[in-house]
Design brief:
Blueprint (H helix, E strand, L loop, with lengths): L7 E2 L1 H6 L3 E7 L4 H4 L8 E11 L2 E15 L6 E15 L2 H5 L6 E4 L5 E2 H11 L19 H11 L7 H9 L3
């Protein structure tokens, strides 16, 4: 395992040489992802294989990390494991992207070299939930029960239901 992965890679060259990149990338180096995390300590385990299948240059591999996201129910930290497979077809045009096999996603390469962290970050962002939350009912288990008490207080401050008169009339049969 490499201590440090390269910042820039040439995916077509790596595919021709059947290259392999294996190592760790710090979470704090992934700028877009770090903004979404409560704690950016830790690293992403990266294991990528570059190769060719006929004329198709491809990247296959695996990335793994444990992220600390903010639970959208209780706003506390929730550990979110990321364990995803990568299958990318390296393409230079939309026409090539349209001809990729169904199980490959396109990796558009406009220049000779691209940033490795952008590939890793894109794959992680695609695997994040829209609304991360704990597996258990975290609001009911809050120790201070402030949110539950606030709901009870708010309910008592509501005025009487305006349709309660209709309900009384229905029960008496005067309707």
């Amino acid at each position: 395992m490499l201590d440090r992965l390269p910042e820039y890679i040439d995916p077509f060259n790596l595919a021709d040489k059947r290259g392999e990149l294996k190592g760790q990338m710090p979470l704090k180096s992934l700028d877009r992802l770090a903004k979404m995390l409560i704690n950016d300590a830790g690293a992403v385990d990266v294991d990528l294989f570059f190769g060719r299948e006929g004329r198709l240059a491809k990247v296959e591999g695996h990335i793994e990390a444990v992220l600390e996201l903010q639970c959208q129910n209780c706003l506390d930290a929730v550990k979110w494991p990321i364990d995803c497979e990568i299958k990318l077809g390296i393409v230079a045009s939309m026409d090539q992207a349209d001809r990729l096999p169904e199980d490959y996603e396109p990796l558009m390469v406009d220049e000779e070299k691209i940033q490795l962290k952008k590939i890793i970050e894109d794959e992680i962002l695609l695997n994040l939930p829209a609304f991360p939350k704990h597996q258990h009912n975290c609001i009911a288990k809050k120790d201070d029960n402030t949110s539950i008490n606030l709901l009870k207080d708010d309910e008592s401050s509501f005025p009487e239901n305006p349709f309660s008169i209709l309900a009384k009339l229905k029960n008496t049969g005067d309707l």
